[in-house]
Structure formats: C-alpha cells, structure tokens
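Notes, p. 3: input format for complexes.
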Amino acid sequence: MPIRPENRWLYPIDWRQLSQTVRFDRAGARCEGCSRPHLRRVVHLGDGRWWDADVRCWRSDRGKRISMKAGFVLASVRVTYVVLACAPLDHDPGNSASSNLKALCQRCHMIHDAAEHRWQRWWNVFRLRAIRDLYEDPRVTRERIAGR
Ligand SMILES: [Zn+2]
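Output follows (148 residues plus zinc ion):
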C-alpha cells in the first residue's frame, strides 16, 4: 500500500531498506499471512482460498495446504496480482521493531487495517460535518434540502 505523501515523515528514514529486509530476506517474497507470492498473478476464490502454482495445491487464507474434494464453482475463480507491503502491526509507522513489521499482501493488509480504515472514514465524515457546521449558512442548507 503506497504511503500517503502527508504521512511520509512518520516513517523512519531507512523505511525502504527495512521494508525490503522484512519482505524479501525474512519472508522470502511471500505474504506472512497467507503465503501468496510477490509480483505474481494468483488464482483465488475470493474467500481467501488460493491456488499455489509452485507446489500445485490449494491453500487457505492462512497459507495452509487444503484439499478441494468438494470442488468449487468455476465462476467464482478470480485472478489477483499480488504486491507485498511491509505493515506495522500496531499501525505506528515509527515503531520499526522487527517484531512489529510484517510482509502482507493486499488482502491480508486490508483485513489487518480494517478497523483503522473504519475509524479513518468515521473521522473524515465527522471532520467534514464539523467544518460544515462552522462555516455553512444553515438557511442556505435548509433551502438546498427543500429543493429551492
Ligand atoms: Zn496475504
């Protein structure tokens, strides 16, 4: 996940090297959540199960080998291009302890950050409403709602 320019100063100056060390040296260019490989197209079912073409088996959303005896609906098969990112587990980019960093694919990263993203959406709406309350003329807003 790209770092927003306004947040870049929160990250350590050697973030690029830290990220590369975690993603490639430690994780071996595979997601530490589900084992999906970096910069590869991966066939998956949308629920976390994915096809590991290297060892020709299905894996769970945790990277464990699973059998697909019951089969699956071919229409539910999707393809995703996997890009690993280095994620701070406590959402604090300043905490660059090795135990706080994890190499995650987009799916695992989004799941890990879901609560943080919900909070950020709430904050953005709250902030915009507060600014509107401060600076908008309530008579204009009432007229707009009434369609005049
Ligand atoms: Zn993953």
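The pocket of zinc ion is lined by residues 31, 33-34, 36, 104-105, 107-108 (CB under 6 Å).
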